[in-house]
Amino acid sequence: GKKPLRQRVVEELKHYYNGFHLLWTDTKVAARMVWRLLHGQVLTRRERRRLLRTCADLFRLVPFLVFVIVPFMEFLLPVFLKLFPEMLPSTFETESKKEEKQRKKLNAKLELAKFLRETIAEMARRNKAATG
Fold first, then answer.
1. CA 52/CA 59 separation, integer angstroms
2. Cα gap 121→124, rounded to integer Å
3. Which of 12, 41, 63, 85 could covalently link to 36 via disulfide, CB atoms 3.0 to 4.6 Å apart?
4. pTM for the complete prediction?
5. Sign of the dihedral defined by the CA atoms of residues 104, 106, 112, 118, in that order
């Protein structure tokens, strides 16, 4: 069944609130990391990735805010997300989108592994033919 309009609107507002809250928390943590970098400390790989992700999210926030601030432009957001899937900051992604991304990455890895396995098998056959 389809949810009532009021419930869907409330869920969307909660989603945006949580997304902005997570982005604010990530920004505070990233600011501390930058402070540590400026004072000569070295970041771990995990911290470096988090800092880069947060910076990318802040840059993605600018076009996203246009959709939030301009009245009735949020109705065009699904169209732009279809055209530019990486436009949303990572804190605004839904679980289904995250799972879909993971599935696509896994399929790409499986295809690469299959290709490499076939290549190695072909090389082994050629070497066997050359020595035999």
1. 11
2. 5
3. 41
4. 0.64
5. negative
